[in-house]
Specification:
single chain; mainly beta; Double-stranded beta-helix; six-stranded antiparallel β-sheet; 19 strands
């Protein structure tokens, strides 16, 4: 399997497959393909895993695309302006926020995981369920805006607005903390909570939070009387 990231504003990944090679994606992820590719949609991993995926923001059903001829091409596109990021899953297993997964090879496993702390589930903005990507092969994440990466040392802490967390290594501790000071909460414009990521491990952040951006646009839309 070979791939290239194409486009800048709303990018996509175009994959070139040999006969028998296959990719899977969430519903609606495919944007174009050449002849020689078959599609099959099912509840990947069974009903239990599929229902858990629903809570991570992904679709219950996944679509698989398999090449019936060499050099068949298929593209998977991001949904908002941002970045498509390739991940070698065997080298870098990750836990991701809901909606970050775009597509992957069939040898990659995508499953729901529960946050370890109840406070993170209630106040983290991503609910109790995140996504864990394991296995072998390539996976691709979609990121709002630009990607920023850090390798946190043991005990090193990064505090992040929750909507700007994309993914982190399983070794990273994920917690939610309250913004200190009533004035900061009421006037700071950053909300009540921050995500606290403690190393060691890799973290991936995004410079844009599309949900916040969409909320600001909606707030500007004139309301009918």
């Amino acid at each position: 399997m070979q791939y290239q990231i194409i486009g800048q504003t709303v990018p996509a990944v175009e994959v070139t497959l040999l006969r028998g090679e296959s990719m899977f994606t969430q519903r609606g992820g495919m944007i174009w393909q050449t002849e020689g590719i078959t599609m099959k949609t099912n509840a990947r991993g069974g009903i239990g895993k599929s229902l858990a995926r629903m809570f991570t923001g992904e679709s219950i059903f996944m679509s698989s695309y398999t090449a019936e001829a060499d050099n068949a091409r298929i593209a998977f596109g991001s949904t908002v302006p941002g970045t498509v990021v390739p991940v070698d899953v065997a080298a870098t297993p990750l836990i991701c926020q809901k909606g970050a997964f775009l597509c992957a090879e069939q040898t990659v496993d995508l499953k729901a995981v529960f946050t370890k702390k109840l406070s993170a589930g209630f106040f983290g903005g991503e609910g109790f369920v995140l996504q864990q990507i394991t296995g072998a092969g390539m996976a691709f994440l979609e990121i709002d805006g630009d990607m920023v990466e850090y390798d946190l040392r043991q005990g090193e802490v990064m505090k992040v607005d929750t909507g700007n967390v994309v993914a982190f290594s399983p070794t990273v501790q994920y917690e939610i903390e309250t913004v200190k000071g009533l004035g900061n909460i009421l006037l700071g414009g950053e909300g009540l909570f921050l995500t606290r990521l403690t190393g060691p491990g890799r973290i991936i952040l995004q410079t844009q939070n599309f949900n916040d951006f969409a909320g600001k646009i909606i707030a500007l839309v004139p309301k009918s009387n």
